[in-house]
Amino acid sequence: MAEKDLYASPAGAVYSAYMEHRWLSRLVARTVWGGDTAPYYEGMEAIGEVLEGRTIVDCPCGAGPALRAVPSGRQLRYIAADLSPAMLRRARRRARVRGVDDVEFLQADATDLPLSASCADLFLSFWGLHCFERPRVAIAEAARVLVSGGRLAGASFVRGDALRQRLLIRPGHGAFGAVPTEEEVVDGLAAEGLLLTASSRSGPFLFFDARAA
Question: Which end of the chain is more exposed for a tag (fewer CB within 10 A), N or C?
């Protein structure tokens, strides 16, 4: 991600607000990007499948939209990490509004997480890979912190040949880093020992699910 915290801008606030509302996010996604974000919200259901006492890493956590899926009353270790201080402030507010206690907020780079190896049962990588200059390294970090058999659920913009994608997705501009192709994401998962169990495309959006060997 660029050194300047673009998510601290008014545009970042607008993005955070509409991603909190599934219907609005889907409307914006269809209108602007020509894709559907419904699988993203469905992917959050993985949180409810994590057993009592296990660990979830949400990186980048953004403004905390995935906190909606944290089960009430279940004892989980939930680590919400993001490089953006503005996003972390919004995520903290979202946790208070939703009454989600004991979330560990961490300002950290997804390519160099200060977490021990094999510590997470579920890793959420929502809307981050396309922001990074080294998306392959971020995949490697997710694989490093996952326990054997741990699950990776993710969503990312990917490059493609469609005219809208070529016009709107410009690597190195705005919040975009080295935006990967779908093939680069799939190859990166395989290279890090992550078995792809499901994937789907909607316009420029790639949704994927994988397991650590």
Answer: C
